[in-house]
């Protein structure tokens, strides 16, 4: 079916003559449509991949891969448990913490905050907060000194910096002759951290675990033990093994349970966006149908002459399939080149536009991050290119079949 003659004629039909300029324009429009659709699909998928990776990295830089707590919601023997888990395969580190909701007041400004008590020397084994400090150090948290480390957005809202005082108001109450009043303690700001994720930078603060124990009246107990694994993607399997090892004395949960809805929503959004943009590719690919039908109409006399000289219907069909395939292939290649180039440079382009026009496309308060990340995954590129080419190939079948059905006698009757 696909002989060199068929390729020669099919490729020759791609070149325009003076009287077929409009057909050439429609062909160019088909190629451009496929190229733009493929470029858009690759770029959007890369941005969504980068978005998920960036948020996951920032989120898990402050969250543990897993947490272990007692049945009553606290641990009284965390040192024993930490020693027991130290020799467990795939567990790289552990650190205790105490957390609770508080109000932080500074100069008539009040903000609700998640206060976390940590051991600075152990916290570095399970989180990256020490590496995210923009002022002071996490090690500046010393027991009995009542120092506090704030997120940069929280510090900006309260209007405080290192060395300033803030009042932490706990939901725990103190009975007094005048009635019950909330527990309050003055803390000194000893550091500020910035993760780059608004949820953490605006709503988190750290103190030493001993100071948190006094504030929340935890005595020698802690809320839970944070764990870090050698592979965060294997957290569910490792957590299941730990649950079996610790029996019923403890509750073990991993990060996927805490953020499952968020990541499931992102996966669903990615699927929906892929389907929508794939429809754009389909529409562009099926523009090839109109292009080929116009070519078939224009070349009816040529087809009739070729068939009278012995060219079979299958060969005629092959000619127009070659023509449509060339259009689809050319558009797909252009789209892949454009999509890959744009995906690699989208962050720089967006930043340039923001700087030139003094606008902000992404608000950190809404989208968690303020820049536009992009991660090109070649498997997505191959899938998009393959689907675009397949749709283009399918679009050639009907016009090619119509060309093969042309009756030479009817066409040449009035020639």
What are the defining features of this structure?
415 residues, 2 domains, 16 helices, elongated, 55% helix, alpha+beta, 6-stranded mixed β-barrel
How would you portray this structure in words?
This protein has a six-stranded mixed β-barrel with strand order 2-3-8-5-7-6. 55% of the residues lie in helices and 20% in strands. It folds into two domains: 4-58 and 262-412, no CATH class; 65-254, no CATH class. It has 16 helices and ten strands. The mean pLDDT is 84. A hairpin with a 2-residue loop joins strand 2 and strand 3 (109-118). With 415 residues, it is an alpha+beta fold.
The percent range for helix content is 55-70%
Gross morphology:
elongated
Structural class: alpha+beta
How many DSSP E strands?
10
Q: Could you list the spans in which at least 5 consecutive residues all have pLDDT below 50?
A: none
In short, what is this structure?
This protein folds into two domains: 4-58 and 262-412, no CATH class; 65-254, no CATH class.
What is the fold's blueprint, element by element?
Layout: H1 4-12, H2 21-62, E1 66-70, H3 78-86, E2 91-106, E3 109-118, H4 120-123, E4 133-136, E5 147-151, H5 152-158, E6 165-176, E7 179-193, H6 198-203, E8 204-208, H7 209-216, E9 224-229, H8 235-246, E10 250-254, H9 255-258, H10 260-298, H11 300-308, H12 313-357, H13 364-367, H14 378-395, H15 397-404, H16 408-412
Parallel strand pairs: 3-8, 5-7
Antiparallel strand pairs: 1-9, 1-10, 2-3, 2-6, 2-9, 4-7, 5-8, 6-7
Helix pairs in contact: 1-12, 2-10, 2-12, 2-14, 10-12, 10-14, 10-15, 12-14, 12-15
């Amino acid at each position: 079916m696909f002989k060199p003659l068929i390729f020669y004629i099919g490729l020759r039909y791609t070149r325009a003559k003076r009287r077929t300029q409009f057909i050439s324009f429609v062909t160019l429009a088909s190629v451009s449509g496929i190229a733009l659709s493929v470029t858009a699909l690759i770029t959007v998928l890369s941005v969504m991949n980068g978005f998920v990776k960036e948020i996951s990295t920032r989120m898990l830089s402050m969250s543990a891969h897993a947490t272990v707590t007692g049945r009553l919601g606290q641990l009284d023997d965390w040192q024993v448990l930490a020693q027991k888990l130290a020799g467990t395969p795939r567990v790289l580190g552990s650190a205790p913490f105490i957390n609770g909701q508080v109000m932080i007041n500074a100069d008539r400004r009040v903000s609700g905050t998640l206060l976390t008590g940590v051991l600075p020397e152990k916290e570095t084994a399970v989180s990256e907060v020490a590496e995210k400090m923009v002022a002071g150090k996490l090690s500046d948290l010393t027991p009995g000194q009542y120092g506090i480390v704030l997120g940069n957005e929280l510090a900006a809202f309260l209007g405080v910096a290192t060395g300033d005082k803030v009042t932490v108001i706990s939901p725990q109450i103190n009975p007094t002759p005048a009635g019950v009043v909330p527990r309050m303690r003055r803390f000194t700001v000893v550091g500020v951290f910035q993760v780059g994720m608004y949820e953490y930078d605006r709503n988190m603060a750290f103190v030493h675990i001993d100071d948190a124990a006094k504030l929340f009246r935890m005595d020698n107990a802690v809320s839970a033990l944070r764990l870090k694994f050698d592979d965060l993607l294997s957290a569910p399997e490792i957590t299941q093994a730990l649950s079996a090892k610790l029996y019923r004395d403890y509750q073990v949960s991993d990060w996927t349970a805490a953020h499952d809805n968020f990541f499931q929503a992102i996966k669903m959004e990615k699927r929906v966006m892929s389907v929508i943009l794939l429809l754009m590719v389909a529409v562009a690919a099926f523009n090839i149908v109109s292009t080929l039908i116009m070519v078939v109409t224009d070349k009816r006399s040529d087809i009739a002459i070729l068939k009278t000289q012995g060219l079979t219907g299958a060969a005629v069909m092959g000619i127009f399939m070659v023509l449509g395939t060339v259009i689809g292939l050319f558009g797909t290649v252009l789209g892949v080149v454009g999509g890959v180039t744009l995906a690699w440079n989208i962050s720089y382009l967006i930043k340039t536009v923001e700087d030139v026009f003094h606008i902000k496309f992404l608000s950190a308060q809404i989208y968690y991050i303020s820049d536009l990340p992009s991660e090109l995954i070649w498997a997505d590129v191959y899938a998009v290119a393959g689907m675009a080419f397949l749709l283009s190939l399918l679009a050639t079948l009907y016009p090619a079949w119509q060309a093969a059905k042309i009756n030479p006698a009817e066409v040449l009757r009035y020639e």
